[in-house]
Design a protein that fits this description.
Layout: E1 2-5, H1 11-19, E2 25-29, H2 32-35, E3 46-50, H3 53-62, E4 69-73, H4 94-100, E5 103-108, H5 111-123, E6 128-132, H6 141-148, E7 154-159
Parallel strand pairs: 1-2, 1-4, 2-3, 4-5
Antiparallel strand pairs: 5-7, 6-7
Helix pairs in contact: 3-4
């Protein structure tokens, strides 16, 4: 299984389903408005869920279900210090994310968010790599927007 957490419009889920044609690819987002923008799919190996990612993570963990790959593209960085608990690595569901296993890739245009994510995982005993993302074909509307505006894009990749 491949998870695309906080998938927005589901564009990234659709792209991932082409890359991982032998897997079930599940995109999750809490916004019905964003999911409603999804263009009709032509592939059958993915689905989009309207729910909180944290709830789905906990559901999978409770049932002992692991994922092979987990993608989190351009999550809200909640830049104010008072919002730390809203960031994934400051949220109570962070332990559920860790228990899902698999290869985790997180992307953001906020280098400090990716660095903090990597440090949080390191503290949890997970080793990965933080690096600049080379210019590529955008996987999501946010990635497209940030590339066009000249942002340096960052990623964390590691095995949980």
């Amino acid at each position: 299984m491949v998870l695309d957490s906080f998938c927005g419009t589901g564009e990234s889920t659709k792209i991932l389903s082409k890359t991982y044609s032998e897997y079930l690819v599940v995109g999750i987002d809490k916004s019905s408005h964003r999911l409603g923008k999804h263009e009709k799919k032509e592939l059958t190996n993915y689905l989009l869920l309207h729910d909180n990612c944290e709830s789905i993570w906990e559901y999978l963990v409770e049932r002992g279900i692991k994922v092979d790959f987990h993608y989190i593209f351009y999550p809200n960085p909640w830049p104010k210090a008072k919002h730390l608990k809203r960031r994934i690595y400051g949220h109570p569901s962070f332990s559920s994310l860790l228990q899902l296993g698999g290869i985790l890739e997180v992307r953001s245009n906020w280098d400090c968010y990716i660095e903090e994510f990597g440090i949080s995982l390191f503290i949890a005993g997970v080793y990965g790599v933080v690096s600049a993302l080379p210019e590529n074909t955008p996987i999501s509307p946010f990635e497209r927007k940030f590339q066009k505006s000249g942002h340096v894009l960052w990623k964390y990749k590691g095995k949980l």
